[in-house]
Design goal:
With about 90 residues, this protein is mostly helical. It has one domain. The chain is built from 3 helices and no strands.
């Protein structure tokens, strides 16, 4: 959204978070309803994940107000690089 559409970084991150939150809600509800979580602890796991998401969203919002757009982009790039390394190491 930043590079193609020209949205400011703060607007793009807020929109992305909104979309991801809705997708995560739909996925969690689907997993709980279908019983896809192992051990019959689907509701407990969904509640624990929700608490983490709510806390993380608050921290993210607090950080977003204090960081410049370029810093947010660099942190996202760093996070993606770390995730890429983790996936590569896991594949080997």
């Amino acid at each position: 959204m930043v590079g193609v559409v020209g949205f400011p970084v703060h607007v793009a991150t807020a929109r992305s978070h909104f979309v991801l939150a809705n997708m995560a809600l739909a996925g969690s509800v689907t997993h709980v309803v279908t019983g896809a979580f192992p051990g019959g602890t689907g509701m407990h796991r969904a509640i624990a994940l929700s608490i983490g998401v709510i806390g993380g969203a608050q921290v993210g919002e607090w950080l977003s107000q204090r960081l410049r757009g370029t810093t947010i982009q660099r942190l996202l790039a760093l996070g993606l690089a770390v995730l890429s390394l983790r996936l590569l190491i896991g594949a080997v």
